[in-house]
Amino acid sequence: MAIQESFADLEGFIANLMQETKIPGLSVMVLKKDEIIYARGFGARSLEGNLPATENTLFGIGSITKSFTCLAIQILQEQRKLNIEDPIEKYLPVTIDAKEEPIRIKHLMSHTSGLPDLGMASVLICRHSVLTKEKMIPFSSDEDVYLHINNAAQELFSPPDKRFFYFNSGFLLLGKIIEKVTNQDLGTVFKEMILQRLKMNRTTFEKEDFEKDNDHMTAYYLTPEGKLKPTNHPFDKFIYAAGGLLSSVKELGNYLQLYLNEGTFGGENVLSKAKIAQLYEPYIERPLESFFGKESYGFGWAITENFFRERLISHGGSTGVSSGYLAFLPEKKLACAVLGNVGNCQGGLVAQLFLAALLGKEALKEHPMLQYETKIGPLLGEYQTYKGINQLKVFKEGLTLKIKFQEEGQPPLTLVPERLTEEEYAFWTPQGPLKFPINFFRDQKTGKVDLIIERSIYHKK
Description:
By secondary structure, this protein is α+β, with helices and mostly antiparallel strands. The chain is 29% helix and 28% strand.
């Protein structure tokens, strides 16, 4: 299938996905070596006025910012202004530490400090965006931040390097270290060290710059009732290093070129080949599996070793009211950026589909997530036992199958897949310490689906 035809199929898929998951606006950019081969917007950057999203629309990129922060740290290390082996207490009044090993800069970069999430990002996002009730925790000064972290000594789960805990507060601290060694605010450092050199002149942390731009998003959140509501994007200096940048897919194309070109952009060397490669070398295995198997984390980047037999480097991000995903295949010199103005714009799936198409795959048929959804699709619906005496509904919540019984007061069952074949779909649901089997059987000729739960057989209506 020609790339143009494949991309056209993906555009139709994106339109349906946006409708089903209520994404107001989405922008996509695909990069091959130094050339943007595809860039366009879908839907509305602002529903009020029905303003279209474009490849130049500014969105909040959330935790994709972490890769920028780690890039800045590497540049400062190359300039010998710091060393990632340095204990963080060398730069900051942070006293929380494991006895065996101090928390070092590299541990913050890789989420291996031994500290779990301390909730700072959640508090600040709720403070600035209408999501949930405000948690009145003091986060208005550097002293508040250090107090919050230093008081969390009992939360230290393990010595550094032993376990992956996604730790937003660690990136806040990295931002403070950058400011300490440069004697400048983080926005200025990013602008001079990265953004201007990559011709990312509209990318910013600042609310004023964002709002005066002629092509910027309106942020939205989904209410519990499933309605989209406009809200404020969370602008706060304590979010900056962990997830505060706003950018467009077009400008992120320049950023991704830096990685595809091994540290150079426009003929200028921004970071040495060895130092930029270190950012996406596996540092620790993540305690989860994607549809493509085990994943690792480096410094501000996730690593998937077997994305259709290629190494995929990626990072997603969400502020709860905007989101995005960057990914690149270093060996193939291919990259993709996706941004949207709602908390989950499905950027990972969309980007992976475009990259799979560029690898010559029939993306909509071969991506394992869509294969899974295709397999479980026939199972969804209403079921009943003999003469309709007992009834239930099989439905999907995210990617998880659930069963809701007709009887009042009986909680839904969550189904965990164990074995999926063409005729038998074996799941289990937890019953205390036990795995209780749930089995579907589908007749390939008639399409008839039966569900066995213990003593009962339910027939799909």
